[in-house]
């Protein structure tokens, strides 16, 4: 190779190397457009492809190779938006290697995406939505119920922390590549993380339910030859303290598992039942 050819090859390699600015652009585009283009056919595929389109153009100067890369990433994709960013990093790392001359078939890149979608979604849903969100909102509710304005600000910690966690996952995926991620997946560490986070999330939900779900009945019965009325709530507390709140929690759980997670119906249903029971003098 002549000196001129070596110089041109070095310049090309430098142009194809993705920078932190490129990764930041990918992440910001993905963060603000993850769920904007969902469709039943491809779900998040368009948002995924749009997020990495500029780095792909930087890697593939040839129009046909660039089109092939876009077609690869317009196929079906759906994962959790925060931890799923690790897939973006891995894909960009593989595309960078492919553009640099590595013999990586496009089907391998697509297969890696497909194989990681489910596990990353399981981790993200458990840690981000099942644990982190519950902890932050529980903390916010505690301050709000004490009348402190800090309770209105604490919920903003959730999107803020999610932003930095997602950025870390994307850069981690780009640095370690597919091989290290697959080793972690096969080691069983991911299952331990999911199990631990699920247990912590269940504890938090139990603590929230016992602390903030308040249901009491005001029903009383008067018997002949007795001066004191029989208070139904006292009898229930002797059998099992918190029986009514527990029944409400199990009722909501039953609805979610058998009727679908329609949160609006649950909210308005609870409001309607509460108002009706209050008017009838059943609940106080």
Observed structural traits:
single chain, 284 residues, mainly alpha, two-stranded antiparallel ribbon, 74% helix, 1% strand, elongated
What does this structure look like?
The protein is mostly helical and about 280 residues long. The protein has 12 helices and 2 strands; from the N terminus they run αααααααααββααα. A two-stranded antiparallel ribbon has the order 1-2. The chain is elongated. Residues about 5-15 have low confidence and may be disordered.
Biggest sheet strand order reads: 1-2
- What gyration radius follows from the Cα positions, in whole Å? 27 Å
How many helix segments? 12
Overall pLDDT, averaged?
81
Which structural category do the helix and sheet elements fall into? mainly alpha
Uncertain runs with pLDDT below 50, 5 residues or more? 6-15
Alpha-carbon distance between the termini?
88 Å
The count of β-strands is 2
**Helix and strand succession?**
HHHHHHHHHEEHHH
Estimate the strand proportion: under 5%
The main pleated sheet reads as: 2 strands, antiparallel
Query: What's the overall geometry?
Result: elongated
Helix content: over 70%
């Amino acid at each position: 190779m002549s000196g001129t050819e070596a110089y041109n090859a070095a310049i090309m390699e430098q142009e194809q190397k993705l920078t932190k600015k490129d990764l930041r652009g990918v992440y910001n585009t993905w963060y603000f457009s993850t769920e904007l283009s969902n469709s039943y056919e491809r779900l998040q595929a368009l948002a995924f492809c749009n997020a990495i389109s500029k780095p792909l153009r930087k890697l593939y100067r040839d129009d046909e190779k660039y089109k092939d890369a876009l077609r690869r990433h317009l196929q079906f994709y759906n994962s959790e938006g925060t931890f799923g960013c690790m897939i973006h990093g891995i894909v960009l790392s593989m595309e960078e290697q492919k553009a640099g001359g590595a013999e990586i078939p496009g089907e391998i890149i697509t297969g890696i995406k497909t194989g990681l979608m489910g596990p990353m979604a399981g981790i993200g849903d458990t840690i981000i939505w099942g644990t982190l969100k519950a902890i932050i909102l529980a903390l916010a509710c505690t301050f709000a119920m004490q009348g402190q304005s800090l309770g209105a600000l604490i919920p903003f910690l959730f999107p803020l922390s999610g932003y930095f966690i997602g950025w870390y996952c994307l850069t981690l995926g780009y640095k370690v590549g597919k091989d290290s991620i697959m080793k972690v997946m096969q080691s069983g560490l991911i299952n331990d993380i999911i199990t631990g986070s699920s247990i912590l999330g269940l504890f938090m939900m139990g603590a929230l339910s016992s602390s903030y779900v308040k249901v009491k009945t005001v029903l009383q019965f008067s018997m002949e030859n007795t001066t004191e009325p029989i208070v139904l709530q006292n009898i229930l507390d002797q059998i099992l303290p918190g029986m009514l709140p527990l029944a409400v929690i199990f009722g909501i759980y039953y609805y979610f598992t058998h009727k679908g997670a329609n949160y609006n119906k649950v909210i308005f249903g609870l409001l309607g039942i509460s108002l009706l029971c209050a008017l009838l003098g059943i609940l106080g």
